[in-house]
Amino acid sequence: MTRLKSSKLVLTNRLRYKWYQRLNFFKTKLRNQIYRIRILDKGYVLCTALLKSQTLRKYRLISARECCEKNNWSYVVIERAVTRKVCKPCYFEKCEETIEKFISPDIYIAEFHNVFVVGGVGAIFTQTECIYDALARDKEERYDVRFSALKYRMGNYVEVMHSRKSKEIKEAIFLVGFASYNYYHITVEILSRLKYVDSLEKYRYLPILIDEVVMEMPQIKQLLSRINTFNHPVILVGDMGIKVERLIYPSMNTWMPINVKHAEMAKNSDYQIAETAVYNIRECAKEIFSPSNHRKLFISRKNLKNVRLENEEEIRGIFERNGYEVIFPENMTYEEQVAYFSEAKIVVCATGAVLTNIIYCMPNTIIGCIIPEEYHFYLYSTIGKLLNLRNIYLDAEVTERAAYFSANKYIVNKEYCLRYIKKVEAILSEE
Question: Can you give the chain as a three-state secondary structure string?
C-alpha cells in the first residue's frame, strides 16, 4: 500500500513537472517575442523593476585590463594566454575522439576601487561602467546577457536591474558569479579561482564575497571549507548589492558563456578550460581519494526535477543487472562523492552538473556520458581529457525540445546500451 502511494506521488510530481516545463517553454517563447520589439522590451523591464522596487541603470562595457590601465589599478597576470585543448569525445559506434586547439585569454588578478557588486552576477560595476571581460570580447554579440540582474545589451552598453539599497565594506575578494546555484559553475568556474589569490600572500587575510545561495548547499559548504585553506571570512551577497572600497578580482579560468542567443551560435572554443581550474579543486580533495578503482557506477537523476533521460528507469535497470552500482549523489556528502568517484573504473550518467565529480576520478577511468551528439557539447569531455580519463559517450535521440537544449528530453536505445556494456567489459578485461 505504501509503495503504491509512493508510486502515485512520483507519477503526480512528474506530471506536474511536465506541465511546468511546457508552461515555462511557452513563457520563454513569449518573452523572446517581447525581446525582439524594443518598446515592449523596455516596458517589460521597467515594469519588472517597478514591481520589485529596484532600479534600472545603463553601464558601458569595459574589460578588466582596459579599466585597470585607465585608472592605474593593479593588474597581475598569473597565467599567460596559451594554447588549450578542446576534446570532442568518442561516441560509441559513431565517431572517434578528436582534439581542437585554441588560444585562451590571460588569467590574472586585478584590483578595483570603489565598485559595486550584485548577487548572482559575474560582472563588477563602477559608477558608469560594467567590468566584464566576456561581454567586452563578444564583438559578435552572440552572448545572451539576460541572466540574473543583467537585462539587455545595446552595443557597448548593458542595462542592469538591482536593488536601490546596498551596504558598504572596505575590502574583499570577488567569488560571486552567474549560476552559482549550479554544482559545476560554483565548483569549477568560481571556487577554483581562490587559489590564484592565495598564491599572493598580501591577500590571504581578506574576506571573500560569495553568493548567499551557495551556503544553502551542504556539499558546496564542505568543498568551500576545504579550498578555503587560509580561513578567509565569508561575506554573503544577496539581492542587496555591496559597495567595496577595494575589490580583488581573480579572473575567469574557463570561457563558456552562461547562455548564447541561439544554439548554433556556440563555438568549440567556448569549452576551453584552464588545467588549474580543474586541479585547484582536485588537489583540495586528495586526502579523501580512495583509488581502489573497482566501482562501476550508474548515476541516477530520477530524484531531480529535470530528468533529461526519459527512459532512465529502463536504462538504469539494464546497467544495474550488469553489475553497475546505482548512486544518487544529491543524497551524499561532498566527501562521499569524492570517495565514490575516485574508486570508479567507469561512470555512466545522463549529462548534468553531477559530472563535475569526474574531477576526482583516477586516470583511465571510462566516462560514459549519455548526451545527444547533435548538441556538440564538449565541457565534460574536455575536463576528462585534462585528467587522462577515457571519454566513451553514448548518443541519444531528442524526443522533446525546450527553449534551451539543456532542458530537452531524450532517450537512449536499450540494445545500444547492451552493446556498450559488452564493449566496455572487453576494454576493462584487457587491463
Answer: CHHHHHHHHHHHHHHHHHHHHHHHHHHHHHHHHHHHCHHHHHHHHHHHHHHCCEEEEEEEEECHHHHHHHHCCCEEEEECCCEEEEEECEECCCECCEEEEEECCCEEEEEEEEEEECCCCCCEECCCEEECHHHHHCCCCCECCCECCEEEEECCEEEEEEECCEEEEEEEEEECCCCCCCHHHHHHHHHHHHHHHHCCHHHCCCCEEEEHHHHHCHHHHHHHHHHCCCCCCEEEECCCEEEEEEEEEECCCECCCCCECCHHHCCHHHHCECHHHHHHHHHHCHHHCCCCCCEEEEECCCCCCCCCECCHHHHHHHHHHCCCEEECHHHCCHHHHHHHHHCEEEEEEECCHHHHHHHHCCCCCEEEEECCHHHCCCHHHHHHHHCCCEEEEECCEEEECCCCHHHCEEECCHHHHHHHHHHHHHHHHCC
